[in-house]
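Team,

Forwarding the record for the chain on the shared tracking sheet. I've put the sequence and predicted structure together so nobody has to dig through attachments.
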Amino acid sequence: MDKSTLVLVVGSEALAQEVSAVGAAVKSRAIQVQRTPDLRRAAELVRTRRPDAVLVELDRDLRDLHAFSAELESGPDAPPLLVGAWSRERFGGEDPSGAYLIDATRARVRDFIRRPVSSAELSDVLERHLGARAASRAAGRVIAFVSNKGGVGKSTLSVSTACALAKARPDQVLLIDASLQLGLGASMLDLDPTTTLVDAVAQQDRLDETLLRELSLRHPCGLRLLAAPKNAMDAARIDDASLARVLTVARRAFDFVVVDTFPLLDSIAVAILDFADDACVVVTPTVPHVLGAVTLLDVLERLGLGRGRQRVLLNHSHPRVAGTLDAEDVATRLQRPIDAVFPFDKGLLIAQNTGEPYALTAGKLFGFGRALHELAELLTRPRGAVGADVAP
């Protein structure tokens, strides 16, 4: 299964849950589901997330749907597949009339699905309309590194992971340094940015895969970097909508997009998490930070990132001393297993001072290098159906 399809559900949470449940049973493609309750918000999400299909819960009045489809048709990008979902309860116990269906078709509804949604019908609609298009467009995997405080090694792990992925896939991995105020990616890679994320945002109206590659910096290992802004004034020019546009193009241009974030859950971070296939939560073995991670993981679930998209990384950023929590202690408090444990390695400190990523020289058999290799393997496993993760 190498096709990934994003379905934007416009309507009730019950409909989104139906699509999630049956989407997990669709064998031909991995289905991701995002939900919004109204068409106004849906128009914005179509621009930023570029879903393959929009599934609208139909009601008797189609005026808003006509306006919505007209807005999609007037945009610069090809509109997504528009599908209507109907139930007899909304039509007085009867099927929609022929006149109604004709009016819906005039609103650019390409197909219809009856509720409760079945996996066979959903699969049939998507294959008939998206088969050729989806086969030619495989969305890249977005991996966001997050934490609830600074100084835990989040940037070190994001850069190391990006380098590890790029070694196997030169020029197919992009690191976006979205820690807008304190980005460290360029210095860790010993690169002098001539262009930054600000340049991509400034060109967002004409940004495409080719331009994005030109704006990124290439490291000798094959990694591409979209560096953080050079100062706070430049950083202020980036908002959630413009960053979403960059991420939309990035996941079309690269197999993997690794995003380092600022340790603050603001609108920028939420926009990144909207795109994330994997949220790597970096935790250090101290009681205050573990307690903070409990809250952060709960917030991620409330934002729509279920446990299937969360990766807990335990990072020993300092040498172990008496009283240090071990992985079992942390897992017990978080009530979930740890996906990777990174031991302290003084080679990382040397690498940060020299600008030579330690990931490029660390062995794979033990220590930090082994943990990094295992994380890279985890993140390159095929994505299964992500139907259970329904965004609000």
